[in-house]
Each structure stands twice: as structure tokens, then as C-alpha cells.
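Aim 2 progress update. The chain analyzed this quarter is reproduced below.
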Amino acid sequence: MRRRAQRQGKRAKAPRRKRSTLQVAASVLATKFPLICPSVRRLALELKAGRAATKTMVARYDVTAPLLTALQPFLETLDVGDLVAALARHPRLYWHPLIVKQLAHLIELIRDRETPPDLQHRAGNAMQDLMAAHAVGLLPGFRVKWTPRARPPGPRPGLPNPHPIDATTRFIDAAQLSVAWRALHRAIAKRRLGALLRDPAKSPSDVQHGVIALASGALNECGPLWSNLRQAHFSRQPPKRFRLLGVARRASWALTHLTERWTVDLTSVVAPLVEGPPSPLLKKEGAPAFLAYAILAILLETTPESVYRVIHHYWRRGRTRHWS
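Predicted C-alpha cells:
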């Protein structure tokens, strides 16, 4: 086939390389066990493949027979709980390079701004459990008790929520605002807002309608859960014989056709992007970030500048500070 393409004057395409079984298994483990660092996942795969006795394995991972015996339950299940139990029995494992890589992976998940909140919380709990197990192994007669850091005096950073879903969401703190802004910013950025605003073939009214549709799509995809402006409705009318159906079939139909929509007017959000001179915040942060601030401002009945100040003050206080 390649010779035929060369005779015809065409450039032959390079043959695709098939992924090995270990590569496919590694990608599956990366999705299934995000808390485990890549080095530990590769070692577990090679152990299952029967490559643990080679000298390359010993040189690459610095593993020995006693180490493999101590970590065998953890390497078989890749469960952080098994590693906690191993550290409690053998506290010196805490300083092994393989365990150090695992701890560094957890710290990176905790500190990274792009880590999903649920995964960040799980990584924090795993880090606490591993450190406590190490301390208990060194001092068997003591236990580690984690207490939250005392909040500094002064007003709590955040904004009041005029449309709460319950009593706990009447005030949205800076951490919740930060999570909501990141989700909206990612959803807006992947919809190519900049290309829509710079399209010369569209009139200002078309651009405005397009930006409103884009903002509505981002809000429907990952809007905050603390606002009751999100209302559930059915995408179609129930069938006439709906009441005659069984409980399971009625529940299945409801889950299939139940959708949510936001009862919020986004026209004022889009206006600064299309009409008039750009605001200082828009010039500083860019269109996707500004639109995310403006959507949160509409939900909280405030200004984008107020949302920006709360979130950036929260970031400056070191909540997401990286190690230098």
C-alpha cells in the first residue's frame, strides 16, 4: 500500500501503532483510581503481568522482596485504606521513594485549582489518613485528631443569596463562589466565546443572541446548586395512560424526561460584551472569565466586580497556594 502511494506521488501515511495491553490497562486504572499516582499504578500492572522479578523493576521502582510483601495488599487492590494499614504496621515505608511519589500526587490533587471538588476532598481525606497512620506507627500509644484551622476574626467572606434553596444556602461563602466560577468558566471557554464575538459575518443582534444561548447552555450544564432559580420541568407532557402505569415505569418516564431550566434574564449579562465600551474588569480578565462573573452576579443580584473581589480575595489568602 505504501509503495502504491509512492508510485502515485502521494505521501504514504504512517501505520498506526497499536497500544499494548499494559497501556490500555494503565489508562483504565487512571480513570478508576485517580487518587493513585502513575508510578504505583504501573508497578501494580507489572506485578499482575508477572514482571516483578526482573532487575529493571528493582532498578526503576527501588522495590525489594520485603517491600513487596508489605505493600502487596495495597498493590493488589489500589485502595488507599490498604496503604494506611501498611503504614501503621511499617511506619518506615513513609520515606520510601514510591510512597513519597504517592504523597506528592495527593498534594498535587489538593493544591491544583482544576481538580474537581469531590476528588479534592477525597485526596485531602486520604492525605490525613496516611499521615495519621504514619504517626500511629511511630507512637503506638497516641492518636491523631484533626481540628479545623481557626477562622480569622472579621466578617465571613462571601455574598448573600437572595434565592436560596434552604436555610444553609442563604449565604454563599468565597469557596462556593470559587467552585461555581471555575465550573462556569470551563463551560464557557470550551464553547469558543471569543470566536463568536470576533465573527465579522454576524450582526450585533446575532452576536447577542448567540452569546445568550451560549451562557444559557453553560448555566444549564454546570449552574450552581445553591440557587432556586433552577426549576425542574418535564420536556414533554405525560401520556394519557400515565396514571395506569406501574410505579417503576412511571419513575423511569419521569427520570427520562425530567430536565431543568433557569428562570433568569441574561440580556444584561451579555450587553457589556456586545454594546458600549468594555469595562475595566472585562479588559483585565477577558470575555469568558467576565461572563462567568456576570452570570454569578445575576444569580446573586449584585455586580460582577463584587463577585470578582470576593473570589480573588479568597485566592490571595492562600486557599489554593502551590508549593514553591
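Residues 319-324 have pLDDT under 50 and may be disordered. The CA atoms of residues 296 and 321 lie 24 Å apart. These observations will guide the mutagenesis experiments scheduled for the next reporting period.
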